[in-house]
Amino acid sequence: MASISIIIPVYNEEEGISAIIESFRPYFKKTKLDAHLLFVNDGSRDGSLVEIEKVCQNELNCHFISFEKNAGLSAAIKAGFDYSKTDWVGYIDADLQTSPSDFLLYEPYLDEFDLITGKRVNRKDSFVKNMSSSFANWFRDSLLHDGVSDSGCPLKIIKRDLAVSLPFFKGMHRFIPALILMQGGKVKEIPVAHFPRKTGKSKFNLWNRLLSPFLDTLAVRWMMKRKISYRIEITDQKKHNPKVNE
Q1: Domains of the chain: which residue ranges?
Q2: 214: CB partners within 8 A, 6+ apart
Q3: 68, 59, 12: which is closest to 38 by C-alpha?
Q4: β-strand pairing of 115-120 with 155-159
Q5: DSSP state string for 117-175
Q6: CB 182 within 8 Å of CB 80
Q7: In what order do the strands lie in the sheet with 34-41?
Q8: Which is nearest to 200 in space by CA: 126, 96, 98?
Q9: What span, in angstroms and rounded, lies between the C-alpha atoms of 244 and 183?
Q10: What is the pLDDT of residues 143-167, one digit of tens each?
Q11: 20-44: string of b/e by CB count within 10 Å (b at 16+)?
Q12: Rounded to an integer, what is the distance from CA 187 to the centroid of its chain?
């Protein structure tokens, strides 16, 4: 049976921690994967870590790591990828604006694709957040041509060996589809449900929604243009290493 670790970055979400495990129970009952949750406490300054520890003490398939100080969403995702030892890694936000049950929609595509990501339909965010996200997605796709309409959707499943090979930087979580394509991977986007935030506070602001992603898009575009690519046509490696191809 293939295995998956679903990474849940947490920053000041103490009110919603208990709801997270409850929301995953229908998924655990129906998934064909050996599924685990991995909470990554990103230096929360409230009681999030205490709540996470309670959940992990009571649930055998729940685990956690905790940063000594806040390092940001991309760092939390990267740490989750590195710490996991499963065949696949997933990612979902702690605010539960996407449903864990929608991971079940991804499973039929696991044999064919390296990344399955969601496209949030009927988004329940503010007008300003929706408009800024639409512009950011348009700008990103115009430069990167990743063929994904909602790159920042926080509901993804990725082959773990490919996930750990991705270049990481602050803000990289918005560019995972483009980075997967740079590594030669195959990407599938499917519609998923979206819900209003019930607990905690949004981390949205003008800088992290528009200005910073604009600069990051230019950086990813530069990486794509500077990417080294080659294919070996023939080699005499076996002559020097008899174990090759045996």
Answers
A1: 3-240
A2: 136, 139
A3: 59
A4: antiparallel
A5: EEEE-S--S-HHHHHHHHHHHHHHHHHH----S-TT-SEEEEEHHHHTTS---TTGGGG
A6: no
A7: 62-66, 34-41, 3-10, 88-92, 155-159, 115-120, 187-192
A8: 96
A9: 24
A10: 666 778 888 898 999 999 999 998 8
A11: bbebbeebeeebebebbbbbbbbbb
A12: 13
Q: Which tokens sit at 117?
A: 């990501």
- If we measure between CA atoms, which residue out of 146, 143, 137 comes closest to residue 176? 146
Q: Give pLDDT, residue 246.
A: 46
Question: Which CATH fold topology does 3-240 show?
Answer: Spore Coat Polysaccharide Biosynthesis Protein SpsA; Chain A (3.90.550)
Q: What one-letter code names the amino acid at 121? A: V
Tell me the per-residue pLDDT of 205-228, one tens digit each, with 9 for 90 and over: 555 555 676 767 766 666 776 676
pLDDT by residue (tens digit) across 165-209? 988 878 778 888 888 988 889 999 999 998 887 765 655 555 555
For residue range 15-39, list pLDDT tens digits in order.
999 999 999 999 999 999 999 999 9
- Phi/psi for 37 (5° steps) reads -105, 140
